[in-house]
Amino acid sequence: MARRYDSSTTTFSPEGRLHQVEYAIEAINNAGTCVGILAKDGVVMATERRVTSGLLAPAKTSDKTYKLCSHAACTVAGLTADANILIDQARLRAGRYEYQYQEPIPMEQLVEHVCNYKQAYTQYGGLRPFGVAFLFVGYDAAHGFQLYQSDPSGNYSGWKATVIGSNNNAGKSLLKTEYGGSSSSPDAMSTDEDADASMPDVAEALRLAVKVLNKTMDGTAPSSEKMELFTMTLDENEKGRCIHRILPAAEVQKVIDEVESETAAAGDS
């Protein structure tokens, strides 16, 4: 039955499904893993680097993490060529908003603009969905640091910590147990102060992100060549200014070594 309806993004199947959109989402589940984690003093993103050939020249810039504007960035899981179109849209919208209103665009408004553009490609004939999912991170004065996930359907949602790409369910299971030491019942009432107190700092979030990648990378030995770590923090000297930083290989390896030491110590105990 599905074969009669899976050649078009604009035709619902009798079960109420859009098969081409579902196939695009499934393609994301085969892409390199991306992790996003909110911290008390910033936000962390970690991505899996997949080296297809040792003959490839080293990339001069990251092909997984992109700066959108002074206060926003994203990571990509899926088709990089598709992502480039949407990244250009996000940069254009952020620039136009700042030119028009003389202030940075609110983070959720930027995410919504990109997702509306993605959704249009599921509604008109002759188009196909973008085969890419994003983790958006950013900061604004009203809501502080934020993390959003979007998929090819155009849906987006805010998260404290999440994973996209291959083995994302295993990564989310680890985050549920380790993020903020969350062992309490989901029905328990908590205040904003409690939530902030339980959040990790950037250093702890980096270690947790590496743990998640270790779990999702199918037993591959962790190394700085196979992971990329990104942090966004506030500048202590200039109010409201965000610092975007991709950690160099030496610092990535240091975090990996700390995680391995923690794991070894926990095993010995």
Quote the beta fraction. 15-25%
Radius of gyration based on Cα positions: 19 Å
Helical percent range? 25-40%
- Termini separation comes to 55 Å
**Tally of alpha and pi helices:** 7
Strand order of the largest sheet: 8-1-2-9-10
Textual characterization of the structure:
There is one protein chain. The protein is α+β, with helices and mostly antiparallel strands and 269 residues long. It has helices at 19-28, 80-101, 107-120, 168-178, 192-198, 202-216, 249-268; strands at residues 34-39, 42-48, 65-69, 72-78, 132-140, 144-150, 156-158, 161-164, 227-234, 242-246. The chain has a 5-stranded antiparallel sheet. A 5-stranded antiparallel sheet has the order 3-4-5-6-7.
Briefly, what is this?
The protein has 269 residues and is an alpha+beta fold. The chain is built from 7 helices and 10 strands.
